[in-house]
Design goal:
- This is DsRBD fold-containing protein.
- The chain is α+β, with helices and mostly antiparallel strands and about 100 residues long.
- It contains one helix and three strands, in the order E-E-E-H.
- It has a three-stranded antiparallel beta sheet with strand order 1-2-3, with helices on one face.
- A hairpin with a 2-residue loop joins strand 1 and strand 2.
- The protein is flat.
Length: about 100
């Protein structure tokens, strides 16, 4: 995703993120397109209303959008990992666990 660049002064960047929501009751679909200027990433996610729940479209929007944003975050992390490996960086040591498993 990223090309190495020599010494360059700090710059401000702008990435464009478009979020598209479509609702076909009981389903809501979120599609996100991220344009970094160098690459375009796209993710989709869905939310489905339980037929016994009241119709509150905002909830479906929030769930679908949140899931799509999480998926986009994972895509960005995978892209960064691929870039790190392509640069020949040594494999990272896994972080220490936050808790110890019970014996």
């Amino acid at each position: 995703m990223t090309r190495p660049v020599g010494n360059r002064p700090p710059t401000a960047k702008e990435w464009r993120l478009n979020l598209y929501l479509s609702e076909h009751d009981p389903d809501t679909t979120a599609r996100i397109v991220l344009d970094t200027g160098d690459n375009v990433l796209e993710t989709c996610a869905e939310a489905r209303r339980n037929p016994y729940d009241r119709e509150v479209p905002e909830i479906g929007d929030e769930l679908a959008a949140g899931r799509a944003l999480i998926a986009l975050g994972r895509e960005l992390l995978r892209a960064a990992n691929g870039d790190i490996e392509a640069m020949g960086a040594p494999e990272a040591t896994p972080p220490a666990p936050l808790w110890s498993p019970r014996e």
